[in-house]
Sequence to fold (685 residues):
Amino acid sequence: MNTLSLKRIESREKITGRARYAYEYPVDGVAYLYAVQSPVGKGRIRSIGADEALAMPGVIQVVSHENAPRLEPADNAELAVFQSRTVSYRGQLVAAVVAETPETAQEAARLLRVEYDPEPHDVRLSPDHPTLYRPDVVNPAYPTDTEQGDPENAFAASPVQVDATYSTPAEHNNPMEPHASLALWDEEGNLVVYDSNQGPTTARNTLAQVFGLDRSQVRVVSPHVGGGFGSKGTPRPSVVLAAMAARLTGRPVKYAVTRQQMFALTGYRTPTIQRLRLGADGDGRLNAILHEVVEQTSTVHEFAEQTAVATRVMYPAPNLLTSHRLNRLDVPTPSWMRAPGETPGVYALECAMDELAVAAGIDPVELRIRNDTDTEPVSGLPFSSRNLVACLREGAERFHWEDREPVPSGVPAPGTRKLRGMGVAATTYPAYQRSGQAAARREPDGRFRVRIAASDIGTGARTALTTIAAEALKTDPSRVTVEIGDSSLPEAAVAGGSSGLAGWGRAITRACETLLADPDRQEAFVDTAQEVGELPELARHAFGAQFAEVEVDADTGEIRVPRMLGVFAAGRIINPTLAHSQFIGGMTMGLGMALLEESVMDQEFGDYLNHDLAQYHVPACADVRDIDAVWIEEADGRLNPMGSKGIGEIGIVGAAAAIANAVYNATGVRIRDLPITPSKLLPVL
Fold:
């Protein structure tokens, strides 16, 4: 039984177009929705003139606060669609048109006459903003601040010091498939939604809450999802609007959020301002770490990104402080974006470590090795496994780190106008564990069917789960069918936090083991809540090292990345092909973060200016030269039955720092404000 070479289960369906996504399901009598967004940054809706739009042939309904059904309160107030006249940010939903065709709906939306009473808005993130406050917790439930020892005085007394401020811009999730929903109500008042999401169980529970229904009255179907990167981890206003419009019109309603609308309606990574202070002795061993973060949230709903949490994990220091402060601004609510918290936080921490290596005159790889630890610095818990040093050494050898010039000259090599440099960054991400349910059944023909409401958002989860089920059943994967992507299946946590495979795999393994233990049993159902709740207390994290080589044009400031290498320690790798794809996908996003991605806020209008893929730049094929990922063979039996750690997010963590550090090594110029663009770099070259 060779499960490691298992190819994508759904590949033929996707290649032939038989794999249906949310917007593609055929339903009789379907109508189409187009949403109208506020052009003002804050205020109230004075009136909505819908007569001209309603008179247009093919228009079925105009939906707004004037006729919207009352919704029940949700955990996220962004879901209170059309429940008041209040406008909290530019781009917020204020009305929608339902029509016989998508073109008719869009044209009728243009004819709506919405009048506003605007108020002054505030969208400027700053470290001294008067609304700065301390949230109770940061995502998902970490302490907002931590402190041990005497960080301020220890830093002041340290022989080697770094005190620097780093900033990252707002960044927007842009999955290939936009957020899309098809909603319909049956005669008994039950709601069925075909929806693009990262967790049908979560989506079902939220929709039931919002519409005041029992969970048994809601079904969410999402067998194929074209990417999410966190933005589809929880329901967005779009799916609530589709269900609301379907109830009002008595028709099935389709709504696909446009690429431009996604920049206001579907979440984004908060911008950050991070002050890092590192104090070390002459040998580079850390004595003090202070990581203070300022970021933004909205006036609608609080989202506090856990930006400094990774600093509590990476390196030990007897004196350590981390803190988070929020600006409550007139902006859309930030949300999850691939490796939330760790991505911007490790960028700042690992750039500061590079600056510390320069200040101490120590090789950056060696500095990190000297500051390794066997226990998690803040909690004191032992790591279930931590192979960061192995990743650093393996990467240094593979990348030929010894060829790096230790001191940047800022002078092009003879016969060229290119400056070359190498950079390194360590990386980490939690090995989260979530409980769930699964069912396994013997079929009359001797095959097996496994059922769980997991999600495959393009990662190959369906294939990996088939491998896990086949191993537990001691059979060939060809004899196993795994059903996912439907809230009517046994409950499962979202595909997020790199926790999906660990939680789903545990449930599937236990269900298959239970079935196999009794030859007369036809079906087994398990719930792993008790098992997960009784896991021993350990620090469970994946680790890795990112290496990058850059080429900087001394005349234009243009930066290219000829090589990147990631070396990861992420437990057992279930499927090498899928894992390699996930690692390099994350690294590619990290490249975009370092050099390209930036959502630019217009202070006057309170909106992101570059809200499309023509102006919001992501890496293209020409930007991605030679990117490779490898991993350390890591046996960690204290994780889950498979011995696996999540891999979907660790690939992006640290990638931007490695590139930024390589730019410094090439030029001698330290750019601390992402992205590193020619306009920032060229004037100081």
User: Anything to note?
Assistant: Residues 384 and 639 are 7 Å apart (CA to CA). The chain has a mean pLDDT of 96. The longest strand covers residues 286-298. The two ends are 58 Å apart (CA to CA).
